[in-house]
Amino acid sequence: MKIPPVKGTRDFYPQDMAVRNWIIDGWKKVSLRNGFEEYDGPIFEYLKMFQIKSGDEIVEQLFSLTDRGGRELALRPEITPTLARMVNQRINSLPKPIKWFSVPRLFRAERPQKGRLREFFQWNIDIIGVENGLGKCLADAEVIFATVDYLRQVGLTSEDIRVKISSRELLADYLGSLGIPEEKLEAIYVVLDKKNKLPAETFEQMLGEQIPDNKIVHKILDFMTVDSMPQLEELVKLKSKPGEYSGKLDVKLVLDNLDMMGVGDFCVYDPSIVRGLAYYTGVVFEVHDTDGELRAICGGGRYDDLLRDLGGPPISGTGMGMGDCVLEMLLEKKGLLSKQVSKKELDYFVACVAGFGKEAYRIIAKLRSMGYSANFSYKTASLSKQLKEASVHNAKKCIIIGPEELEENKITVKDMATGQQELVDYDEFLSGSHSA
Amino acid sequence: MKIPPVKGTRDFYPQDMAVRNWIIDGWKKVSLRNGFEEYDGPIFEYLKMFQIKSGDEIVEQLFSLTDRGGRELALRPEITPTLARMVNQRINSLPKPIKWFSVPRLFRAERPQKGRLREFFQWNIDIIGVENGLGKCLADAEVIFATVDYLRQVGLTSEDIRVKISSRELLADYLGSLGIPEEKLEAIYVVLDKKNKLPAETFEQMLGEQIPDNKIVHKILDFMTVDSMPQLEELVKLKSKPGEYSGKLDVKLVLDNLDMMGVGDFCVYDPSIVRGLAYYTGVVFEVHDTDGELRAICGGGRYDDLLRDLGGPPISGTGMGMGDCVLEMLLEKKGLLSKQVSKKELDYFVACVAGFGKEAYRIIAKLRSMGYSANFSYKTASLSKQLKEASVHNAKKCIIIGPEELEENKITVKDMATGQQELVDYDEFLSGSHSA
Question: pLDDT band at residue A435, thresholds of 50, 70 and 90?
Fold first, then answer.
């Protein structure tokens, strides 16, 4: 009986796995050098944890399951609620700020689309426990810096990608000035987040359902589409009072910090960025390809209330999530994958004349225990066929065992790149004193 | 609202994650040096894939879920069926033998017990596509060698662990000689697998339910408990015909191969090893702690029919699975974890006198882009407090930025191990020409 894989999932054959490992290893390396420590949680959590704060859109896309005890569980669609739960559990013993990263496998029960699968990997970095306003802007900037640090590391430039930064607080302030009540904000954010994903007409219609006054709808559209940097300068003039810190202007402070960190050329203020998740409260951002052909490469922002809403103290956090699917599409398009993902290779391939298998197994076992990768042929084939197999394995060196060699207690070591052969003393080689 | 984690799952705080990464990195390293390539499949598959061949025990422990399209899915309790599905999909293009490994996250909806959680990681290695009898025994031996290669690498010796090897074919031959019909074998294997996990009385009673004849029950018990190595020698004499290969004697050939590979001292024939999974057809094995205090550390065996039963050609496979839970318990008990799992560390901690934050961010960003791990304090604290924070981070070097230094366009680099300080030119340092 032939069973297919489930739609929206991926099989990782060795060549696919090499790409996945290269992406994930890069995420881990950049996280560590930016001072983040790795954590992870379970693949499933109580369903209600996601219902509390992630917002309707994500809850509609949950894979839910019921265990034998009748508990309602869900496969995690994101890891931030798990992070908040874990931090809350040890809130008193964890030194702050908490700078953690994770590469969770996540799940969404939606119709698979280009760059959006039902199962994917996501790099997450978060900074939790920075409470003063200026510190928060530094934490936001550090999250964005680490994001750019990775994207730059894999070869993307400010020609390829743009970090678009905005602020929920600033947007709320503007919507408030138009007379929109606070309790309507969450629903409006969900719609505004779709601005660049839907045809203009559909989007305006959806926004009209939330805001019946057409004049206000157009004011909002103007706010989100004007030339943004001058708008920000104007807002700074308008909202800042000398010597007084205002959260509404965080986006300006974050941009200044990013400039100092040397990645200002990647970043821009863009009021059309809103993010779909319900828990964001401050600065939010997305990274897009400058061609505008793909979905967001990643997104993130500040969440001041999430830990409190999940039963913890009112501690602030800020973070970023980057999935592997859109990233891989962009890297592929820019030709950055094939030249960077390493090919499989082998330190030694051991070939032997028929009847000398025992010696071959002995040498292979020894090489592996010494830390070298080593392989051999399961087929009883001619030496030339075995050497061909060695090439398929991309072996650096080939060891040849035959009667003439063993008579003198020697083996032949062949360098596969240069073709040079060398007779080496068998015992000396096995003792590890022959340098590889 | 406070939400707990789900019972039987684990939260991996950074110190737990360090252990998990160390175990998994070791598995990967040993797999690669033994010539295995990495693959992975999805976390969920169609439920019926597991129902076909894994055996009742595992199917009872499945986490099942239904997607929006009404498809019945299950979280994978093992990866071998996925491996068989993936190999079948590309059977004609994959060069054989296929030597693949994976470290899947697996799920079991059973009551959590010591060393058995509802969510865990499992190292899997498999060799598929070796068809002749002697080659199969070599493949079985290679799987066991790689297993021992890892266990030895992490510091376990033949004093600590024992590889117990047996054969389903040999057992079937013996049970057949007692008049037990073939169609009853699968159910009997499930019971026999419990021999070392249940009290003797309960076990005998369960076996009695399958085999009403008490004399036969006791013969089987004798077969499974006698001094095993002489029994094997006797069987070899009894079953082998000169010049003729017999699958019943594979266990002897596998042991001989393991001897040649230099791990014979770890291995023993033990007819009480049966394995619970339904798909095993030949040599089976488990690794146990010699103290006999823990569950099996790992197990595996040969499956001749699995690919065919999942819609592919009749191609043979052999493999091994090792979970992380029992392994971690054993390593902990033997004191092998704390001395091998590396502590967190940082290349540079950047400390600055108040007011020089900007310079600090600039240097940190630069260091990270150069590939060094670097961190700093979010708090505006005294230099001595910042140096204390550097120690908490286990920083190798500390950079100190203050007015006196910057007046001369220099920074202080302090070696945290020796306490030695050095004044370094600021621009030279940023250009990367100062060696770290």
Answer: low
CB atoms within 10 A of CB A214: 11
Classify each residue of A224-262 as buried b or exposed e, where b means 16 or more C-beta atoms within 10 Å of its C-beta: beeebeeebeebeeeeeeeeeebbbbbbbbbbebbebbb
> Is A346-430 the same fold as A14-333?
no
Q: Does domain A346-430 have CATH number 2.40.100.10?
A: no
Selecting from A5, A42, A361 the residue whose C-beta is nearest the C-beta of B9 gives: A42
Specify the CATH class of B14-333 in words.
alpha beta
A86 — contact with chain B (CB < 8 Å)?
Answer: yes
| H/E element, A346 | strand A346-352
Closest-CA residue of chain A to B365:
A261
Alpha-carbon separation of residue B81 from A7, A9, B66, B381 (angstroms): 17, 16, 20, 57
What does the pLDDT average to over B384-390?
93
According to the model, what pLDDT value does residue A433 have? 63
Domain ranges of chain B: 14-333, 346-430
In tens, the pLDDT along A39-77 reads 999 999 999 999 887 666 777 889 999 888 889 999 999
Among B38, B100, B127, B131, which would you mutate to test the A interface (most chain A Cβ atoms within 10 Å of its Cβ)?
B38
Residues within 8 A of B (CB atoms), A 373-412 only: 373-376, 378, 392-393
Which residues of chain A make contact with B145, given a CB cutoff of 8 A? 365, 368
The least confident of A257-261, B41-45, B322-326, B376-380 is B376-380
Predicted confidence band at B235 (pLDDT cuts at 50, 70, 90)?
Answer: confident
Residue B248 touches chain A, beta carbons under 8 Å: no
Q: What pLDDT is stored for residue B247 in this prediction?
A: 80
* Residues of B (91-150) whose Cβ lies below 8 Å from A: 95, 97, 99-100, 105, 107, 109, 119, 130, 135, 138-139, 141, 145-146, 149
The residue-averaged pLDDT of A85-96 equals 95
Q: Is B257 on the interface with A (CB under 8 A)?
A: yes
CA angle at B352 for the pair B346 and B358, rounded to the nearest 5°: 100
Q: State residue B77's pLDDT score.
A: 94
H helices present in B154-268, as ranges: 168-177, 185-192, 200-210, 214-225, 228-239, 250-260
Tokens of A1: 């009986």
> What ipTM is given for this predicted complex?
0.93
**CA distance to partner chain B, nearest, from residue A179 (Å):** 32
